[in-house]
């Protein structure tokens, strides 16, 4: 099974690195100093699951050098997905499975529209990891996992084979019978807290321990659940309560990736998280006033960040 990973940051670097460590044929599409360090020194994973340096990794910034692959893991930021298509297409053949591991709810449909419904699986992951320095991925929290499945909810042989391959690398993997519902459940968990932490410029535990911001988060999460229900996802008040209960247990100092990008003045996933809520709510005639406010308040800085940092290619 020939695998390519587009986006060798915290998500793609970690999962692709573990696959390579356990003997899979993995090629990374990367760029800049990160690419050069991977080529010269290998890819280092620093993790509670065990540190590793994987030598002799194949990495390139020219996907055409690789040719078609069996599996393409897409692990870019949501705002990079359109530009990543140019890197994706040289890796495709009729049998290629595309597994997006992005935050948000739009990536599977977008890729299916661009590449063909039969090519694309739905996918999500859980991990907190980042590039500590070129060639080094630091995993800091959450036992890493991947959930994947066919967009038509069929339990296909190819999805099971891919799940088994990922599981063999020591990564907890589930093949889902309703992957879009699972993606929405993750969206319910991550999008509202990303918006509120970004707005408050505060860690998750500080947001949860402050009554005013906790109330804001609870309202934002309830809006997303109502939106999901309006578009056919069986999200309930119990799901909202579960999200809030889980976030109350977050260790001190934990932040969201969107918050880190916004505070660092970098382009973020605002459009694919809070922006996606606002856009879908409008088209579905659902009121989301809290998320509308969060989006409006964060949008000017996001626009400035994209002007000041126009680079759109994945790490």
Give a quick rundown of the structure:
It is built from twelve helices and ten strands.
Kindly state the percentage of residues in helix. 40-55%
What is the second-level CATH architecture of the largest domain? 3-Layer(aba) Sandwich
Total domains: 2
Spatial strand sequence of the major β-sheet: 5-2-1-6-7
Question: What is CATH's topology name of the largest domain?
Answer: Rossmann fold
Secondary-structure element order, N to C: EHEHEEEEHEHEEHEHHHHHHH
Biggest sheet character:
5 strands, parallel
SS summary, helix count: 12
Q: Explain this structure to me?
A:
The structure is a single chain. The chain is of the alpha/beta class and 315 residues long. It has 2 domains: 2-177, Rossmann fold, CATH 3.40.50; 182-308, Orthogonal Bundle (N-(1-d-carboxylethyl)-l-norvaline Dehydrogenase, domain 2), CATH 1.10.1040.10. 47% of the residues lie in helices and 19% in strands. It contains 12 helices and 10 strands. The strands form 2 sheets. It has a 5-stranded parallel sheet, sandwiched between helices. Helix 11 packs across helix 12 (289-308). It is globular and about 50 Å long. The two termini are 23 Å apart.
Present the secondary structure layout.
Blueprint: E1 2-6, H1 10-21, E2 25-29, H2 32-41, E3 43-46, E4 52-54, E5 58-60, E6 71-74, H3 81-88, E7 97-100, H4 107-115, E8 121-133, E9 136-150, H5 157-167, E10 172-175, H6 179-200, H7 204-209, H8 211-230, H9 237-247, H10 257-263, H11 274-284, H12 289-308
Protein traits:
alpha/beta, single chain, Rossmann fold, N-(1-d-carboxylethyl)-l-norvaline Dehydrogenase, domain 2, 5-stranded parallel sheet, 5-stranded mixed sheet, 315 residues, 12 helices
